[in-house]
Amino acid sequence: MAADQMLKFVARPQAYPAKREPELRAEDFREIADRYATPTAEAQAGRCSQCGVPYCSVHCPLHNHIPDWLRLTAEGRLREAYELSNATSAMPEICGRICPQDRLCEGNCVIEFSGHGAVTIGSVEKFITDKAWDEGWVEPVAVGPERGQSVGIIGAGPAGLSAADWLRTAGYEVHVYDRHDRAGGLLTYGIPGFKLEKHVVTRRVQRLKDAGIVFHEGFEVGRDATMDELRQRHDALLVATGVYKPRAIKAPGVATDGVVDALDYLTASNRKSFGDAVPAFDGGALNAEGKKVVVIGGGDTAMDCVRTAIRQGATSVKCLYRRDRANMPGSQREVANAEEEGAEFVWLSAPASFEGEGKVTAVRATAMRLGAPDATGRRAPEVDPGSEFVLEADLVIKALGFDAEDLPTLFGSPDLGVTRWGTLRVDGKSMMTSLDGVFAAGDIVRGASLVVWAIRDGRDASEHMHRYLRDKAKAAKAGAVPVPERQATMVAA
Q1: How many other β-carbons are positioned within 10 Å of the β-carbon of residue 227?
Q2: Domain Dihydroprymidine dehydrogenase: where (predicted)?
Q3: pLDDT of residue 479
């Protein structure tokens, strides 16, 4: 396609890849839409206006060169388009699938402002990277000359994997430690297959393993090694654990059998997709089949639970959220997908108690109303007196978000500084924690956030770590600092 095919947004309507019919996609955990055919992808990329100030790139946490690879796609230069998108992102096909583009790049597209519908950036990004995998354009990690320095990364989620990719490219020996038996973090065990099929994650992980990155799976810091032991083992550390502590609901009956945490529920479902033995699923505790399900929360995790319960064969699925639709934190696209598949949303409502003798049978809820804005600028929900109602429930899933675990205690490292929210305290310029040579990135620093921000943080942390390690090696060679025997041998080599 020639360059004169650009700027076709007036005559060429916006077209996302077609979704499968709701009743069909609710029967499995496959992604709900296939990728574009090549001519369609090129045509949709050609709708880009190539504006002088690309708001899409500005509002992308990775600052991807979006207009440039859209132009290359429109011109049929697909390999170049992929290579450009891959230059700024360690996982472009994952971002293309799970980023909330409606709140980021596409939501800030100039064409969207003009009323013609945003360029379908995420779908094109998914297309060009999947095409690259199919055609063999995804090359092995280009490992630089070995530097003789070792890096340890705690956490194999998006921040840790992103940093591992960049640091290995720079020539460092990289070891990744993760508590789970598979790498990927929430990409593997938190996000359902209908949003992100698992082979998409495993092939990225395998690429890193093929580059010589060593993964220590089933490894818990504090149990298998202390933080101090890892610091002795490596020249620098990165903490990228994410945040996994579920936020609690303070209501009578919350400990009743059948009231479960979202991550436990989603992990059980994803493990079944791998063929693992999951007793809590097989026994029914974490399986929605044949049950009346109530999900509490309004974020993307709540949407994942709602849509998973539908696929497991729940008889009814209701989502209880204390604000209205316009003020919910989750993606509006995900809400629309859930409604298409049969979920019911009960807006402006919150749980008051959980009922049942030994096993939950109902949620007693109260209606809410929106009052004055809170500290974040959002209107705060208030109880509407005398408005209680009851929802029958055999399974209640709490999806109110996540907080940081007590890492200083878990890691046996009381000197590891934290904020009042429990996240790790880092220097804003260097991303280093209170411990020399220990850096942190992703949700464990910023709190529960988006995968794309974790990828960005991992990339940024790798740059800071590279500078730190370079200076450390120079100082060691100059004899300015004492160097442990292992490190002195590696630097001399």
Answers
A1: 24
A2: 25-136
A3: 79
pLDDT given at position 8: 72
Other Cβ atoms less than 10 A from the Cβ of 451: the count is 28
Q: What three-state secondary structure class fits 447?
A: coil
Q: What pLDDT does residue 1 have? A: 42
- The Cα 333–Cα 152 span in angstroms is 38
Residues linked to residue 396 through DSSP beta bridges, in sequence order:
259, 294
Closest CA to 358 of 317, 318, 394, 316: 394
Say what the pLDDT of residue 481 is: 53
Which residue from 79, 25, 18, 21 is spatially nearest to 44, judged by alpha carbons?
18
Amino acid identity, position 386: G
Place of tokens 């064969």: 313
Q: Using CA of residue 452, residue 189, residue 332, residue 30, what is the dihedral sign?
A: positive
pLDDT of residue 487: 37
Q: Which residues of 249-273 are buried (b: 16+ CB within 10 A; e: fewer)?
A: bebebeebebbbbbbebbbbbbbbe
252 and 388 Cβ atoms separated by less than 8 Å: no
Quick one: pLDDT at residue 493?
A: 29
Token pair of 318 as six digits: 């209701």
The pLDDT, as a whole number, for residue 181 is: 97
* pLDDT score of 490: 29
Helix H or strand E encompassing 122: helix 121-135
**What kind of architecture, by CATH, is found in domain 249-401?**
3-Layer(bba) Sandwich (3.50)
- For the chain, the domains span 3-135, 150-243+404-492, 249-401
Same fold: 3-135 with 150-243+404-492? no
Q: What is the pLDDT of residue 93?
A: 97
Superfamily of domain 150-243+404-492: FAD/NAD(P)-binding domain (3.50.50.60)
CATH T-level topology, domain 3-135: Fumarate Reductase Iron-sulfur Protein; Chain B, domain 2 (1.10.1060)
Give pLDDT < 70 ranges for the chain: 1-5, 480-493
Q: How far is CA 60 from the centre of its chain?
A: 15
Residue with the two structure tokens 């850096």: 439
Radius of gyration of the chain (CA): 24
The answer to whether the beta carbons of residues 3 and 71 sit under 8 Å apart is yes
Task: Give the containing element (helix H, strand E) for 88.
Answer: helix 78-88
- Can you read off the two tokens belonging to residue 429? 């310029």
How many CB atoms neighbour CB 212 within 10 A? 12
In this structure, the dihedral spanned by the alpha carbons of residues 80, 82, 84 and 86, taken in order and rounded to 10 degrees, is: -150
